[in-house]
Amino acid sequence: MENNSSFLRKIVVVLLILLFFVLQCSVFNSLAMGGIIPNLMIILTSSFGFMRGEKEGLLKDLEVPADLKLTKLSHHKSVLVEARDYSIRYRDAGRPVFEGLGFSIEKGDRAALSGRNGCGKSTLIRAILGKNGQGSGLLDVEEAGVCRTAAGLVISYMGQEASGLKGSVRDLCRERGLDESLFLAVLRQLDFERTQFLKNMEDYSEGQKKKVLLAASLATPAHLYIWDEPLNYIDVFSRMQIETLLLEYQPTMLFVEHDAGFCRRIATKTIRLDG
Predict the structure, then answer these.
(1) In Å, how far are 20, 41, 88, 246 from 25, measured between CA atoms?
(2) pTM
(3) For residues 47 and 45, what is the distance between their CA atoms, to the nearest angstrom?
(4) Cβ of 256: how many Cβ atoms within 10 Å?
(5) CA 146 to CA 217: how far, in whole Å?
(6) Calpha distance 40→89 (Å, rounded)
(7) What tens digit of pLDDT does each residue of 227-265 get?
(8) What is the pLDDT of residues 108-153, one digit of tens each?
């Protein structure tokens, strides 16, 4: 009987979370006051934390997500990335991927990169990383105009693709030069069981792989964080953690994300690639 009661409580809690999430993404977005949107999910989580403890009741079995942290570096320049009349065209293509693009990313900006599928968002990210000496950059392209990054800029990048993850998370730490204790602590905050650390990442679910990429980015001190679709495969609790983190620490960012509500709450500016 006790097991049935516990199972019922958990079902009700999950239904409440889903209901509140729907309300947050619809009704509460229209209740902004002075530019501030009430965050029902954070209110709900805080209420759960207050009501936990020795008391019997509906919410006693709920785990409250731990707060994530990051280390943002301070750069001596105010403008970290700048583009003026910038265009990219692949040599075997008849038309440019985009052209005449102009924008700047200054310290404190959280810039959402917006545009239809295929408009060049990931291409622009690869170009920025290449200008900064990270990744392979762009091959077989013709560029026009200006795109440059500040000297000495440190970028922490989280891409879409997780298929290249191989070996254990400790192998990844050594490969990327990460602080292992910090990296594993972030994964624990993202609800990773310690037993997962012993498994090969090839056997992880898509959500777990995405959390590995997120943890690696958060464990990398940086001036600029570039995230390409960070919420793909991410559960509701972890989305709440990510949003709370970004609003609290306010890192300088360039990100691509199709969740319109997340973009409204997080972005301080929008860079549009398709007009």
Answers:
(1) 9, 10, 36, 18
(2) 0.76
(3) 5
(4) 20
(5) 27
(6) 44
(7) 999 999 999 999 999 999 999 999 999 999 999 999 999
(8) 999 999 999 889 999 999 999 999 988 766 778 899 999 999 999 9
Which residue, chain included where needed, has tokens 């029902």?
40
- CA dist 48 and 52 (Å) reads 6
Structure token digits, residue 229: 């679709």
CA distance 175 to 193: 22
Contact, 230 vs 218, CB < 8 A?
Answer: no
